């Protein structure tokens, strides 16, 4: 009996495994689920734990053993998606940023989006000029420590917390001044709502960067936002395409293509190269999901998308879930008592470490580099010489693509928007606040390879989310970048040849298969005695009788003669 009980217990343990999900406030939710459980089950458990109804904006992210990020698909088994061995560790993150986060129905949803954007601000994914940075940080202080109290908050209290990768004493004083004088009396809910209203106006709001290279080998970041598709390169935003302009997303191997129609006579194709085929597929799936979520009117309009035009090759993927318009309509119908929110105090943590963990940066002098250093102390000064913009294959006679911000068009004399101290637009820059100089070389290799160096860094940086604020200066080692670009160019030529050969072989195999099927059908028509109505009708047609007696029968006799001749040779030997 004991042995049976032990064996049964072991089998039950083998059918279950432990999952740990790191939440947006850095707390952890651990549960035990069945081995065949799907992603939807785990996602629903977390949303129930958080008392979250507006859950369509969120998703679960995990990192595979090759350091590649993935979003957990809710329709598939968890064990089949995650290649590592249990126990599994994942993260809850905002997957689809609300177009207007301050207008969300429930306070709990706004609070979770607030935590995500605060994390984006710290990791350098959300850009802002000095005045905006001070105001955002002051909102965070007010939301999490309340009104200024001289007895509790001594001189320099704002320096104990770090809201950005690096910042200056001047900015710390400005943050404290705003917190002391302008935000008195604001409740945490009001401060968080004001924070969201301020953040949504920044043009890198919602950016989750994917490191790539353009056809010239220059580093770039691709991102999907609530408003469209953007390409960030150097200190410029080289492309912005609204969702209604994007017509198709394709990938093959490490090559990613974006097809768009800007005007009736203007069609463009953008091509970029991801670090690995897995990263390219992840980029494609993210694009397909974001386009469906923000562009479509109803989830019934969602269709299965193929990465190739040919049915016998490529990946197929279908977004499963409601679209943005449906989510907002359902949110308006929510009628319940607001759930209680347990806000975490602003204490040093993985997402907001103490400033004593790293030195402050003084202002960065203006130099000519391909990437950008931005010094918040001196108004986020940016360096002018950036990487080349991505060549575009155009099939129209229209003017070159001119990216436009939500508020105004860029200067007509240049196809890209360059950052300047006088007119700084966050979406025009890849790099926000700077990092320490000694980490630049390591950061360059991370950004080009698109993967962090350790599992711990994956956990501490959004489960492997590349932060283009952490990347430092792409021009810090321009020779290595150029050498890498040359090697990638030679490698891409070989890959293109291999892809062409594989495509030809696939086409040949499909053609042979079709001919074989036609031959089988011909033999059935001519040689079989199957009494089927449509076969009898075909046999009785004059054309078929002529073909049978004038072509097929002589050919059959010729084959039979050859076979007898070959058989005779074999017997004689």
From TrEMBL:
Listed GO biological process terms: actomyosin structure organization
Transmembrane segments: 500-525
Annotated segments matching region Disordered: 385-432, 455-479
Localization (cell): Cell junction, Adherens junction
Entry-linked InterPro entries: Band_41_domain, FA, FERM/acyl-CoA-bd_prot_sf, FERM_2, FERM_central, FERM_CS, FERM_domain, FERM_N
Keywords: Cell junction, Membrane, Phosphoprotein, Transmembrane, Transmembrane helix
One of the record's GO cellular component terms: adherens junction
Main location group: other
Keyword Phosphoprotein included in the entry's annotation: yes
FERM domain location: 17-298
Annotated function: May be involved in regulation of cell migration. May regulate cell-matrix interactions via its interaction with ITGB5 and modifying ITGB5 cytoplasmic tail interactions such as with FERMT2 and TLN1. May regulate ROCK1 kinase activity possibly involved in regulation of actin stress fiber formation.
Protein name: FERM domain-containing protein 5
């Amino acid at each position: 009996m004991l042995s049976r009980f032990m064996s049964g217990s072991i089998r039950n343990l083998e059918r279950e495994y432990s999952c740990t999900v790191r939440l947006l406030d850095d707390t952890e939710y651990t549960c035990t689920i069945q081995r065949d459980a799907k992603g939807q089950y785990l996602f629903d458990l977390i949303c129930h734990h958080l008392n979250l109804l507006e859950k369509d904006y969120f998703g679960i992210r995990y990192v595979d053993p090759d350091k590649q990020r993935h979003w957990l698909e809710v329709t598939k088994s968890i064990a089949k998606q995650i290649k590592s061995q249990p126990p599994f560790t994942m993260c809850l993150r905002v997957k689809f940023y609300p177009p207007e986060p301050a207008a969300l129905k429930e306070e709990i949803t706004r609070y979770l989006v607030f935590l995500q954007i605060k994390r984006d601000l710290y990791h350098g994914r959300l850009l802002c000029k000095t005045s905006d940075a001070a105001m955002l940080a002051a909102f965070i202080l007010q939301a999490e420590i309340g009104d200024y109290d001289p007895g509790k908050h001594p001189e320099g209290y704002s320096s104990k917390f770090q809201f950005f990768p690096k910042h200056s004493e001047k900015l710390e004083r400005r943050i404290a001044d705003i917190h002391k004088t302008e935000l008195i009396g604001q409740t945490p809910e009001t401060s968080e709502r004001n924070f969201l209203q301020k953040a949504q106006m920044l043009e890198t709001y919602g950016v989750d960067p994917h490191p790539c290279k353009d056809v010239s080998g220059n580093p770039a970041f691709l991102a999907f936002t609530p408003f469209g598709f953007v390409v960030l390169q150097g200190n410029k935003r080289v492309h912005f395409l609204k969702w209604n302009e994007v017509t198709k997303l394709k990938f093959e191997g490490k090559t990613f293509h974006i097809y768009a129609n800007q005007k009736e006579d203007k069609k463009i194709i953008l091509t970029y190269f991801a670090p690995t085929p897995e990263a390219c597929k992840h980029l494609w799936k993210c694009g397909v999901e974001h386009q469906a979520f923000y562009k479509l009117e109803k989830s019934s309009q969602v269709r299965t998308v193929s990465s190739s035009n040919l049915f016998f090759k490529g990946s197929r993927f279908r977004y499963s879930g409601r679209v943005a318009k449906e989510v907002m309509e359902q949110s308006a119908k929510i009628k319940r008592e607001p759930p209680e929110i347990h806000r975490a105090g602003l204490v040093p943590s993985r997402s907001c470490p103490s400033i004593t963990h790293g030195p402050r940066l003084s202002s960065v002098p203006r130099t000519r580099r391909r990437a950008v250093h931005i010094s918040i102390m001196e108004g986020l000064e940016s360096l002018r010489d950036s990487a080349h913009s991505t060549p575009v294959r155009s099939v129209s006679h229209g003017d070159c693509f001119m990216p436009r911000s939500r508020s105004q068009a860029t200067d007509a004399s240049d196809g890209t928007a360059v950052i300047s101290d006088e007119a700084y637009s966050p979406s025009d820059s890849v790099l926000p606040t700077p990092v320490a100089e000694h980490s630049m070389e390591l950061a360059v290799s991370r950004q080009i390879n698109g993967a962090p160096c350790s599992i711990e860094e994956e956990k501490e940086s959004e489960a492997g989310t590349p932060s283009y604020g952490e990347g430092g200066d792409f021009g810090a080692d321009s020779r290595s970048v150029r050498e890498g670009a040359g090697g990638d160019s030679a490698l891409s030529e070989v890959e293109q040849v291999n892809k062409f050969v594989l495509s030809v072989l696939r086409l040949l195999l499909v053609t042979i298969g079709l001919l074989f099927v036609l031959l089988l059908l011909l033999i059935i028509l001519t040689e079989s005695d199957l009494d089927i109505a449509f076969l009898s009708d075909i046999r009785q047609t004059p054309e078929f009788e002529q073909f049978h007696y004038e072509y097929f029968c002589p050919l059959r006799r010729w084959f039979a003669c050859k076979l007898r001749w070959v058989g005779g040779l074999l017997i004689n030997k």
